[in-house]
Structures are given as C-alpha cells and as structure tokens.
Amino acid sequence: MLCLRLTPLLVLVLGVSLGAAFPHNTLRKGCSLFKYKQIMVHEKKAVEKMQKEFQRNIRRPGRNCNIWLFDREWMPAHLSVPDRVVLVEAELNFTIKMLQLSTHPGFTKTRQRSLAFLIQAREDLRGCVAPSHQPSGELSQWLQNLQGTMVTENTSCLEDYAIRHILEVLDDLKCAALQEKCS
C-alpha cells in the first residue's frame, strides 16, 4: 500500500530531475532545420554561378566600400543555438533584401534559384527561437551594427558585400541547424 502511494511522488521527482538535465535554451518544438545540416552541393553551385554572373556583369569597380559585417571578433559556432538562429535570420534578411534590389536582366535570372532557397530557409527559421529569447551581448551589438550599416552605407556597396559573403551565410545556416557546437 505504501509503495502505491510513493509511485506518483517518485514519478514527479524523476520528471523534475530529467527536465533539469536537458537544456531549455534550444530550438522550439516543430522547428526542423535538419535539411540544412548538409547544404546541398547544387545550392552552393547555384550561389557560385550567381556570384560569377554578378562579378562579370554588375560589380561596379572603383567603389569606396568599407563594410566588415562578417569580419567578427567571435565565431558563430561559439554562440548558443538560439543565438545562431537569430544571427542567420538577420543575415538571410540582409542578403535577400540585397539580392532583390538588382534589376540587371542576366543577374535576375541567375539569382532566382539562390533567392528561392534563401527565402525558404528564412521561412523555416521563423518561429524557431522563443520570442522571449534575448540575444547575447556580442550578437546584440552585431545586430545593431547591421542595422546602422544598412542605413549609412551605399546600397551598391551593401549589395556587393552581401553577394560576396553569401557562402558564409550558408555556412552559418548549416551551423544553426546543428544543435551541438559546430566548427
């Protein structure tokens, strides 16, 4: 009889103990980034083709651009998983916005596949992080720098920068999909 009364208490204690053993600072349920753990080769090739087209036909020489957004003192791999997702979502927003600006006919066709992939990735990331999540200090500072740069910097410099660094965004996306530390 005593054993039956202790069973619910033991289940409760065990449940609380196990709940404390697992981190709560992870991606939200229903957030599946599994497909980004291995960015497909054809997506990277599409991005490289787009970059070549941009350099060949659009890149304007002689611009005095001084943007260093992705030259950070910290590595995305050292961020918490939710911070990595916030970082990648901001990078995707920036990159998508810049890709959508160009109206050069050859580039418009070349960018379609990469743009569609990036938009889908951004949609998959939305809602992955709890709304109450507060980014770390270094990430918060970077997000502020990104916003400031988008206001103060020349649009053609921003566009050039985004396209040159799109492979880094894909690497950061892959890193965000890994729920453990990545390299």
Automatic annotation (TrEMBL):
It comes from the Eukaryota. GO terms for cellular component: extracellular space. Keywords: Antiviral defense, Cytokine, Secreted, Signal. GO terms for biological process: cell surface receptor signaling pathway via JAK-STAT; defense response to virus; innate immune response; positive regulation of immune response. The keyword Zinc does not apply. One of its GO terms (molecular function) is cytokine activity. InterPro entries: IFN-lambda_sf (IPR038326), INF_lambda (IPR029177). It is found in: Secreted. Residues 1-21 form the signal peptide. Transmembrane segments: none annotated. PANTHER family: INTERFERON LAMBDA-2-RELATED, INTERLEUKIN-28 AND 29. Belongs to the lambda interferon family. This is IFNL3 protein. It comes from Oxyruncus cristatus.
